[in-house]
Amino acid sequence: MHAKQLRVGVVGATGAVGREMLKILEQRTFPAGIVRALASSRSAGREIPFMGGQLTVEELGEDSFHDLDLALFSAGGSISEQYAPIAARSGCVVVDNSSAWRMDPEVPLVVPEVNPDDLAWHKGIIANPNCSTIQMVVVLKPLHDAGKIKRVVVSTYQAVSGTGQKAIEELESQVRQMFNMQEPEAKVYPHQIAFNCLPHIDVFLDNDYTREEMKMVLETRKIMGDADIRLTATTVRVPVFYGHSESVNVETEKKISAAEARGILSQAPGVQVLDNPGEKIYPMPIHAAGEDLTFVGRIREDESIANGLNLWIVADNLRKGAALNTVQIAEVLVDRDLVRV
Ligand code: A2P
After folding, report:
1. What is 3-129+322-335's CATH superfamily?
2. Using DSSP, how many helices (H) and how many strands (E) does the chain show?
3. Residue pLDDT, tens place only, 156-194
4. Residue ranges of the domains in the chain?
5. 144-156 in b/e burial notation, b at 16+ Cβ within 10 A?
6. Which among 92, 122, 131, 144 is annotated as catalytic?
7. Does residue 87 have a pLDDT over 50?
8. Residue 131 annotated among the catalytic residues of the structure
């Protein structure tokens, strides 16, 4: 099929990630002949601006896929569980942004800068990793290639937009309520998020880690293709609208000096080194928001062990952490003629 005729659906087109997907398809002039916006019955009939015109939102249903070649999903795990197999059966390739399929051994989990070749074995569903994992592995992969990573300790500082549109609105309204001397109302999060930090993302598991923390452990191993990498994570929601930050400690088998790490990372695809402490230059979410690159700085040797590095990694969670990575996967599928199963 000629790429120009590709028929693309965005499932969850009215959500925080779905709207970013449409924006990125437009910005990168993705070779789609037709783009359809799908969401729940609540949004059916709504108009979304796209490529100088309007897309009318359609209600998602079992028959939404028979005339689509590619569907980008971001409508939550239960929608993906239910509809991705239906889409794949009708010959529509799914790139899914939820966690529903990520650890399925039949489903590639892909970051195009890290493991694009895994797309070759897809069977109709491809998973887009968790936002925090994506920005971490684009930085870790070149270091792993240079010195073989043994262990990673990561703490995250994650923006509310990762939770979705309702969470963005909750932070806005809590800030307004507090400046008006009102009690902040928490509906999306279990506690106030304005001027606070919540060491709690997704649900708690039997081992007392959150599911978000265990996603980072398991997804990193799958994407990097190395089951031996040991990783431990603490994931924290912070009152930032856009842009996730991460403090990452890496232990390697072979020593990598801070200068070597800067050199390696300045050549890494999709990565920009911002590391000049003397000039107060380091990555920050206010600068990463709206950008496609993953930014890394505060690169230091960990003086407490022989072969260790500390890094500070920041990226736009809605773009590289979600919508951009999904569209990049779709671009590789098109380039490698992998859209037809
Ligand atoms: P809708 O706006 O019609 O509810 P976010 O992650 O920002 O909360 O967005 C979630 C996205 O998933 C929205 O586009 C939302 O559409 C969509 N969605 C939620 N439930 C369904 C459903 N049952 N069927 C289709 N789309 C859904």
Report:
1. NAD(P)-binding Rossmann-like Domain (3.40.50.720)
2. 8, 14
3. 999 999 999 999 999 999 999 999 999 999 999 999 999
4. 3-129+322-335, 133-317
5. bebbebeebbbbb
6. 131
7. yes
8. yes
Tell me which residue has tokens 């206010």.
Answer: 286
**With contact defined as beta carbons under 8 Å apart, do 220 and 152 qualify?**
yes
Predicted TM-score of the model (pTM): 0.97
Strands 149-158 and 244-252: antiparallel
In short, whether 15's Cβ falls inside 6 Å of ligand 1 is yes
CA of 62 to the centre of ligand 1 (A): 16
What is the pLDDT at residue 5? 81
Residue 115, Cβ density class (10 Å: 0-12 exposed, 13-18 middle, ≥19 buried) = middle
> Ligand 1 atom 8: the closest Cα is on which residue?
164
Tell me how far apart the alpha carbons of residues 9 and 6 are, in angstroms, rounded to a whole number: 10
List the beta bridge partners of residue 300: 310
Nearest ligand 1 atom, CA 60: 25
CATH topology of domain 133-317: Dihydrodipicolinate Reductase; domain 2 (3.30.360)
